[in-house]
Amino acid sequence: MNKPLNVKPLLVARKISFHGHRIELRPSGALCFPDLSALVVADLHLGKALHFSAAGMFLPPYESDATLQKLDAEARATGADKIVLLGDAFHSARLTAEPDFLPRMVEILARRAAPVFVLGNHDRPLTQALQKLSCALLEEWRVENIRLRHEPDGLSGPQIFGHLHPCVRVATRAGKQRRACFVVGAEKIVMPAFGALAGGLCVTSPALAPFARGADLHLI
Amino acid sequence: MNAKPPRPDLPEILVRWFERRGWILRDYQRRVLDLATRKESALVIAPTGAGKTLAGFLPALCDLARGEAAPLFALYVSPLKALAVDVRRNLEIPVAEIGLDARIEARTGDTPASRRARQQKNPPHILLTTPEQLALMLSRPDSAKVFANLRYLVLDEVHALAPSKRGDLLALNLAQLARIAPDVQRFGLSATVKDPEALARWLASGGAPTPHIVKAEDAPPPRFEILESESRTPWSGHSGRYAVGDIYQRLRRATLSIVFVNTRLQAELMFQLLWDINEDNLRIALHHGSLDRAHRRRVEAAMAEGAVDAVVATSTLDLGLDWGDVDLVIQVGAPKSASRLTQRVGRSNHRLDEPSQALLAPANRFEWLECVAAVEAVEAGAQDNEPAREGALDVLAQHVVSRLGAEPMTAAALYDEIVAAAPYRGLTRETFGRVLAFARNGGYALKAYDRFEKIRADANGVLRVANAKMLAAHRMNIGTIVDNPMARVVQAIGAGRALKKAGKELGTIDSLVAAGMAPGDTFYFAGEVWEVRELREETLFVSRARANASTIIPSYMGGRLPVSESLAARVAELISGARHDIPFPPQVAEWLAAQADVSMAPRPGRLLVEVFPRAKRHYLALYPFAGRLAHQTLGVLLTRRLNRAGLAPIGFAANDYAVLVWQLRPFPETEDFSKLLSPDMLGDDLEEWLDESSIMKRAFRNCAQVAGLVERRVFGEAKSGRALTISSDLIYDVLRRYEPDHILLQAARLEASREMLDLDRLAGKLVMFADNIDLVRRARPTPLAVPLLLEIGREKAPGNARDLALEELGDEFLGT
């Protein structure tokens, strides 16, 4: 339980090498393959506020725009021409109740770079709606032997995925802090959630602990 | 008011029962009865134990005795569910002995849902309940029918309720009741307050006639003693550990004692310490809010029966309960306000004609000064200031939905009813419109949610809740008490998969505290030692264990106490040495001498500032003695200035006397401190800085829950694995960025401002100090600063300190 974790602050972008590829971990929670001009982000959960409003909880309707603005800034900063959305780009199937929402989001996403949607558990029910908008939908995206998915599939070999929203508590001189993080192991990288309202799961929890063991935690 | 001749006397059977009991009506109780006979209302002001509750119920008892009672003709509302239950028990006695035919029931959050449903359908004659349950009952469409027979409304402890969000909600409900049953007579019961007229106006919410103020005869002043222990009194800490031997000797001599402490942590510790030296096997019990209800009931029953010799208790015992023959009250640690002290002392000697007696045991040397100040304040008859209150907007947002759930109505009718509630008298039509828009669909400038409206208007402008599902979800969130998430503590056997609950539920502790414990850790809880077996979801499974060197007492977040502004000036006077009439005990004198030696004593008209490092941080301690509100504002402003100066402030803590700031970087020798305090800093954009403060974020969290923006975490609904709850801090950040004038931010600013002093008043105090600063640098905390280091209620400073500290971690290996 109290096993030491290898914690690295990520206040400026850091380049690492992962199975023969250069990868840049970014303090925004995005990850970049500079050689491919590809920006990878996980768990945007766009429309989360809209989803809750259907139940009478009227969260501020600005969170999707906040997330997309942050993404746009990242695309600009890295010069990426491709954005890989690693699942749960959208929060729920309920979003189709607001007919303008998905088209508007997809249009904004495509403004700066070509989006590639890897499907996650939250947005798989939107498959048809996204196909209608001519979105590129994948179960996984590959960079040679690295498989980029929404969730880990239990197979060995290098994988990059999201889904788990990792975060960690650390003690610092300014007190205890809870920070979202990249979990970078020898074979697996777990990405933090990029969405403005996404929330997090502690790396010591059973779902994350197997990946966090012996891994580097890059805190954002 | 009424032309009919009054019926001044009690019904015969009540008179006979009084005689059998040897009771005589006091004058003030008779006055209440006279007013009741004339169909008027009253605000009854009397000290604890003077028979207020009886006075409030006399009119209802008379009606019962005359056979003039219908179902739910009398309603009693108390801030404490324990009080509702206890008063019900006390009412049952005369009703049974006199042989009256009446159903008397309590209804609290603990009442089973089936009984609550029955109470709504087939109400008892007298119902005893809490503001939250009343709000729930009034949110139902049948509420007009349920309360149609209501004649008497008895509101207990109104002095505690009125100046709070719960009081705002209750005032709105009073306004609603005034429409359903306009002739209801109201009897408010209160301890002594500074401004009874304001309280009477609050009680008249809904346009009811202002009640008459009825005061009980003055009781003789309480008698106080401040403990002077032979043992060494510590400089800091709040445990009172040093005094436990002296306290035990007093318990031995008394029949039934209550040992009041300020926090649950102190209660657990004091209880342990007393049992460690309990050679006479005194029956000592423990009572605090984290303990299981059944346990608390047993302790309360034992007190009533005299089956216990002493009880260690927190504020759960504070309010009006009648506890048998308590003959000694001990207050460990300084009472944080004169009113609180009066109330606690009132626990002893429940007879108006004899003075109550109390022993004050300061937990450290600084608290000795506070005890002296508090006693002087009580003796001078000082009461804490209750600022006039503007009703909270998040409470209003909640009420609007409840109200329309009970009865569709137009916005105009709703507005008229709301402004009849005292706290909302000044509510503008415009603000009301924004609150209504929030309740309707979030009220955002970006019209995103018209499709999902919670409130719909028909062609005639009549508003109603859109559907039953939304109303049902809303009802789950009624109330204004926002607690920290709690974890249950449950006794268990077995391990791993075979782990199962065995035996009783012991109570609850803060989930953050629970999350910090690992299997194998031992801790004190409910007066025993337990070993953690497992934390699963929101339940901590434990088994009995033996104490060892690392056994901990979990610290509870619930320890934050409201403090009183008026004591600060008295303490400043004492500490400056200006008072020669009060001889300091040797230990206190020695401590102040050490302060003068190591640093200096604060001087009248000058501001002492101490600078020292401790545990890798750098501290600034300021002693303005200007009251907690002023110090909170000062803390916010100072950390802003320090951040701008690049000193990376981490946080601050403010109490009545001082403000303490800590930062990552040392305060430079060359820095001119008076510049940090210069009054022109007040020109800074305080709004913006406040919005970044942790005070504001906390206020927003509360408001978001009360207003129904996010759902309260209901006990037992904790999701396994991924937390599905949305952090209100994230919502706050988004909202502040995109719609800074949103009504919910306005509600939060109003709430945050209650914790702060406005700038003009702070400026007045600071100008005085600007050129009169005594700056002292030392290598370690000074005697005066030591108690501050343990101060609770810490606020985070905004700025880059958190990032800088994270950077320092570098490639270090750290535990979580």
TrEMBL record, chain A:
Gene3D superfamilies: 3.60.21.10. Its EC number is 3.1.-.-. Signal peptide: none annotated. The keyword Methyltransferase does not apply. It is an enzyme of class 3 (hydrolase). Keywords: Endonuclease, Hydrolase, Ligase, Nuclease. It comes from the Bacteria. GO terms for molecular function: endonuclease activity; hydrolase activity; ligase activity. InterPro entries: Calcineurin-like_PHP, Metallo-depent_PP-like, PdeM-like, Pesterase_MJ0037-like. Residues 39-144 form the Calcineurin-like phosphoesterase domain. This is Ligase-associated DNA damage response endonuclease PdeM. It comes from Rhodoblastus acidophilus.
Automatic annotation (TrEMBL), chain B:
Keywords: ATP-binding, DNA damage, DNA repair, DNA-binding, Helicase, Hydrolase, Isomerase, Ligase, Nucleotide-binding. GO terms for biological process: DNA repair. It holds the Pfam family WHD_Lhr. One of its GO terms (molecular function) is ATP binding. Coiled coil: none annotated. InterPro entries: ATP-dep_Helicase (IPR052511), DEAD/DEAH_box_helicase_dom (IPR011545), DEXH_lig_assoc (IPR026362), Helicase_ATP-bd (IPR014001), Helicase_C-like (IPR001650), Lhr-like (IPR017170), Lhr-like_DEAD/DEAH_assoc (IPR013701), Lhr_WH_dom (IPR045628). PANTHER family: ATP-DEPENDENT HELICASE LHR-RELATED-RELATED, LARGE ATP-DEPENDENT HELICASE-RELATED PROTEIN. Residues 33-211 form the Helicase ATP-binding domain. Belongs to the Lhr helicase family. Lhr-Core subfamily. This is Ligase-associated DNA damage response DEXH box helicase. Residues 246-394 form the Helicase C-terminal domain.
